[in-house]
Design a protein that fits this description.
By secondary structure, this protein is α+β, with helices and mostly antiparallel strands. It is about 55% helix and about 10% strand. Strand 5 and strand 6 form a beta hairpin. Helix 13 runs antiparallel to helix 14, helix 14 packs across helix 15 and helix 15 crosses helix 16. The longest helix is centred in the middle third of the chain and has 45 residues.
């Protein structure tokens, strides 16, 4: 009798410990807006803190109109590959929880396999409802297939089934207590709120990227022969530079990477307001015409200044004509005071202008000569470190050879060339 009490006390203490650990872990979940990371964290914490062999999360995918295995964690051999399982809304497990039949088996709404087994023994009940028995048998088969000891549904706004968390057996072989099921249902409600928040954020991002595409299209319509190819090149090379900065642990602006890249390739959006006859003028511009051209960074920035949360986008566009030594426009910013995105855009824009024809220069420079110009302007027009980084990108893209770059730029850091050679 005493041993039984001690075991119960020990079990209660262990449950309280992992319950508290999971509660602490979930407190900040709503602030995680990366949905993939959030889902991985939820499943990982459940497996680790509850001491399970494995666990997984089936999440509703609105585009596919089905429930997809979004994450699975556990011991080697027990993990199911992501998206390996796809369940339609009319299949037993989903239908069962959508109809909220879990409450027939357990007061929490979650179910354990022992709840199902006990219920299936009630022959008198099933004489009246054979369809219910069939659905219970199918559900049990699903639990066996997934090696699940329990299923925990997650509802949004009390009626919409957002997902199902399946829990494998515990490492110690113990069964789930009722108190644990109650806790996992509460945990599921918190997780659902966090997932919905991340989904809404992702939807907002999609809307914004749609706006960005529309803006890009408006620029293309304004000047189709030049602008679209220029933007495509800016996007590709900007993406490569940002990848390399990330690998080197450079702190990027607090914004989604896609948005950061979009800010760089939209740098010239203000040129929509510059008269075509000025943009396409062959030969030198007058002072008055230059004053008009120099307005385009401000005009472009003003578009994004109207949208709350896109202040950094506006800054990148406004300052992409600034020079590293402070002699640029519109505000004469210098060195690190110029936003990183604007400094990247300055290098890319100048290189693209030099290597492609323009109204004021029909014959473009070859890549080697353009690189020489970038090197010559290091510390004056351009951020020196970004010029070195761009040289690496050109080398990795096969746009310039190792020997050519070393000849043009004998002082380039050994690390830069070494990294480039290793990455091949």
């Amino acid at each position: 009798m005493l041993n039984k009490k001690l075991r119960k006390k020990k079990k209660t203490r262990a449950f309280n410990e992992y319950k508290r650990s999971l509660e602490l872990a979930t407190e900040g979940m709503v602030e995680i807006l990366d949905i993939e990371r959030l889902i991985r964290l939820i499943v990982y914490m459940v497996v680790k803190k509850a001491g399970l062999i494995h666990a997984g999360l089936l999440l509703y995918d609105a585009e596919k109109k089905s429930y997809i295995l979004s994450s699975s964690r556990g011991l080697r051999g027990s993990v199911i590959p992501k998206e390996y399982i796809r369940i339609e809304p009319d299949e037993p497990i989903i239908k069962f929880f959508k109809e909220r039949r879990g409450y027939l088996l357990n007061k929490s709404g979650a179910i354990r396999i022992e709840d199902l087994n006990r219920f299936l023994k009630n022959k008198r009940l099933f004489k009246k409802d054979k369809a219910l028995r069939e659905s219970m048998v199918e559900l049990k088969d699903e639990m066996v297939n997934y090696e699940a000891a329990a299923f925990v549904p997650g509802y949004f706004q009390t009626k919409n089934l957002l997902g199902v968390l399946f829990l494998g057996e515990k490492n110690n072989g113990e069964k789930f207590e009722q108190e644990e099921l109650d806790f996992f249902m509460a945990l599921a409600r918190t997780a659902v709120m966090a997932i919905r928040s991340a989904q809404l954020y992702k939807n907002i991002q999609k809307i914004f990227y749609g706006v960005v595409k529309a803006m890009a299209l408006s620029i293309e319509k304004f000047d189709p022969a030049f602008t679209r190819p220029h933007m495509d090149r800016m996007f590709k090379m900007g993406s490569r530079m940002i990848e390399k900065l990330e690998k080197r642990k450079v702190v990027l602006p607090d914004m989604p990477k896609e948005l950061f890249i979009s800010s760089i390739f939209l740098h010239d959006i203000g040129k929509q307001y510059t008269p075509r006859e000025i943009l396409h003028k062959e030969g030198s511009l007058t002072k008055e015409e230059w004053d008009i051209v120099r307005r385009h960074p401000i005009d472009g920035a003003e578009i994004f200044e109207q949208i709350e949360g896109l202040e950094e986008v506006a800054r990148i566009i406004r300052y992409h004509q600034e020079k590293y030594d402070g002699t640029g426009y519109p505000d004469g910013l210098k060195a690190g005071a110029i936003p990183l995105g604007a400094r990247i855009a300055a290098v890319l824009d100048s290189f693209d202008a030099m290597t492609n024809s323009r109204p004021y220069r029909k014959k473009p420079l070859n890549i080697n000569d353009a690189v020489k110009e970038l090197i010559k302007e290091k510390g004056r027009q351009f951020d020196p470190e970004l010029v070195d980084l761009f040289a690496e990108v050109l080398l990795e893209e096969g746009m310039i050879s190792f020997s050519e770059l070393k000849e043009i730029y004998p002082d380039i850091s050994v690390g830069c060339l070494f990294d480039s050679l290793i990455s091949r």
